[in-house]
Amino acid sequence: MWLASRQNSCVVTRGAFVDVLVCLCGPDISILEDSEVGTLRQKTLSVLTASELVTSCNSSATFGPGSTQYLLSLARVGLSAGVEFPELWDGPQLKTKLLDHLLQCPQYEVRELALEGLLRKLEEEEEEERKRRPEWLDETTQSNLTSLALHETHPQCLAKVLQVLCVLSSSDELPWKDGARVLSLEEVLLHLLTLAQNSAHSVELHCAALTLASQLGIRLVNSDPQSLSAVACFAQWGALVCSCCSEERPAEVKLAAARVLVKCTSTLLTSPRLPLGLSTTVSLWRSLFVLLQDEDQEVRDSASDFIFNVPARLLSTDMAGVFTCPPAALDSGVGLLCRLFEMWGEVQAGILALTQWLLGEDEHSQDAAVNEASSLDDDDFLFEKGDLNLWAEPIQWVKLLHRHLGSLILTFKDTQEPGSAGLDQVNQIHTLAQSKALSSQQALDSLPALPQFCCTIEHARLTLRQQRAALALEVLDRLRQRS
């Protein structure tokens, strides 16, 4: 006890013997009698309460060599008493204060250790236990956590506190406080969206901010969908989620985006009210389909889980509650989106959106096809593997879109007038499709003899582009006939 106390001037040995005390006071070592362990725990707590970590005394032990390791050893005592094994230690009020001291410690290493301990404890708890408020979560600790989320400057600590709040917010609505001031959901959401946009350099922080912002966004939709400030938040949030689904993003980011889209399927993606508006909702569906075709198996499988959150009334009986592989989930998802267009009364807008997907990315010049073809390598080769390999097959994706577009056009009634804006958009897409078809044909004609053998990649890509354009023109012609 003397070696672990402040009477010992060597902070390195202090920290080492504090670690020994943590082991002796824990549940795993039973070399002492119960009464002896109880006495030892009380003495260990007295060492902690008299230490620089609690008294905030600016001594050499706080800033000198070995001080960080010493403070971390003290922090482990506080975590054991306040979070990990509170039933073994007496004095509940003292234990709560210890946790607050850890969260407010100037050394980021101590804050990070405390947050890791909280997160580990929350993740170990069963789902039913999470619904009950943890013993250590009083109003002061809750306020400290939300204040840290708003003001923490160390990226790893900030990521950890956001992860803790993600778990806590999933089972209960937490009031966000910055000191004495209570923040609205819109204020917190805007802060988190800005944080996520500015933290792409840190994958852990970026994913944590995205996940927590999505939880609050869903809650905001359920609480006040008509708020103008909320509508602005929704558009910004939708753009953020879509940006996290692009092919070049790290797998961890795409996994986080997939989980977000799965969780918001019933609330946002399939809602008859269209709380995000048609454009943002369709963009989120497109991002989900991109993830279902991602090269990473874990990303595809995670995105496939959206089927479990689709309302039963929108699914066929053979799909409800059944695990679905990514190719089948992709097919079902596009079919579901077509039914949603009918439910929303936006069949024509849906046809035009899917036709643009069918056509592919816009081109800015007639030579774009040739320039892109010349830069391809063997990794881009398109294999025809059959209808069950949709995730990696642009050809199969095009066929799938065309098939569902054909069914969607049949639901477009003759009495539905497209309007001048709709006609303008149809004509615009038609002109672009014609341009793509012409440029692709010209590029194909410029290839040497037997191009499928001597320049396979260029021929495959140009053929796909030509097929996209031809199918898009066919869809638009059918739409004009129905109008």
From TrEMBL:
InterPro entries for this protein: ARM-type_fold, tRNA_methyltransferase_THADA
Keyword Flavoprotein: no
Positions in coiled-coil regions: 108-139
GO cellular component: a single term: cytosol
Gene Ontology biological process: tRNA methylation
Top-level taxon: Eukaryota
Keywords: Coiled coil
PANTHER family: THADA/DEATH RECEPTOR INTERACTING PROTEIN, THYROID ADENOMA-ASSOCIATED PROTEIN
Protein name per the record: Thyroid adenoma-associated protein homolog
Gene from which this protein is expressed: LOC102213197
